[in-house]
Specification:
Elements lengths: L1 H8 L6 H5 L17 H4 L6 E3 L6 E7 L2 E6 L3 H18 L16
Antiparallel strand pairs: 1-3, 2-3
Length: 108
């Protein structure tokens, strides 16, 4: 699950201010250019940012003066987010389980 979340974290559009302040790691190509992770994601997930609350958001998270969000019409990102929620729930053990039932004779 950690590897999946690391991969998905690369789909976050980062405000230039956060890059300038050194708040994020920038992946670079061998030639020194910035690696474009969207080449790998191919529309699976895109988390955008805005300085104001986005009215077209499916879900939002405020962080360090910006709103990070998934657009409501981004069906691929919404599906990916739902899959992540399901996997996290399974890993956390939130699914009910059937424990074995033991029967003991009580009468003599």
């Amino acid at each position: 699950m950690t590897d999946i979340l690391f991969y998905i974290a690369q789909a976050v559009d980062v405000p230039p201010l956060h890059i300038e302040e050194g708040l994020v790691t920038v992946t670079r190509k061998l030639n020194g250019g910035i690696f474009d992770w969207s080449e790998l994601h191919k529309n699976q997930m895109r988390i955008r940012f805005s300085e104001t609350w986005p009215p077209d958001a499916y879900m939002t998270v405020p962080y360090r003066g910006f709103w990070f969000y998934i657009k409501d019409n981004d069906l691929d990102a919404k599906s990916t987010f739902l899959l992540l929620q399901t996997l996290a729930g399974l890993q956390a053990g939130t699914a009910p389980s059937a424990a074995p039932v033991l029967t003991l004779p009580v009468s003599r």
